[in-house]
Amino acid sequence: MTATTTTPAAPKKRHRNLAQGVVESIGASIREGVLKPGEKLPTESVIMELHGVSRTVVREAISHLQAAGLVETRHGIGTFVLEPPAPALLISPDTIRTIEDVLAILELRISLETESAWLAAARRTDQQVQDMGEALQRILQGGSIEADMQFHMLIAQATGNRYFVDILTHLGTTIIPRARLNSAQLSHDEPSAYLQRVNREHEDIFHAIERRDPEGARAAMRTHLSNSRERLRKAQEESAGS
Predict the structure, then answer these.
(1) Please, what CATH class does the domain formed by 12-81 belong to?
(2) pLDDT by residue (tens digit) across 138-180?
(3) Cβ–Cβ under 8 Å, residues 102 and 190
(4) Which of 85, 158, 178, 220 is the least crowded, having the fewest Cβ atoms under 10 Å away?
(5) How many Å apart are CA 39 and CA 28, to the nearest integer?
(6) Where is the HTH gntR-type domain (predicted)?
């Protein structure tokens, strides 16, 4: 007499693995923009057919997606893709007070705004160039901090990438060293001589963007921000020495 064997029930882990597969597939579609914010997910039946899984697995996957903040289910209507949460910026403008703080921000801006200038030169519209030119004229006429900030913001806008704009907006006037510190005094320059150099640097950036020269714009922006950094670094060293 041979003993009969029974097939063991599939372990629960298999359900979790199947559900995770569905989560990863739908999550990838959301991250890659195939499924956009506000769009409705396919019905449970369609997802079951696409992935070859049961309704229980689909519902478990939807639950995981909800917990991750990727989708929300509206009863009687369906499940919809949510807007991705805005990333939290860890830089607080209120903490930028010293020369060391401004130097650190300048290092960040060198990496950020050199690429911003490159993209702006490649993508700018005629209207954006006109707006930059008007901001530049205000800088040349009075050297106002507001015009300086607007000039850099217009370059960010000309990239067509809203994240450049978001970061500069968050930083506010901290992107302009002389908004926080007397840069001319720190570098032992006459204010007029200091402004003339800064104005020439802005002009070089503008003209490169105007003639659609991405490499020239990148180099001009790097020169401008690097000069600002070196002026402040020299002032910091002299202050420490004294």
Answers:
(1) mainly alpha
(2) 999 876 778 888 899 999 999 999 889 888 887 765 555 554 4
(3) no
(4) 85
(5) 15
(6) 16-84
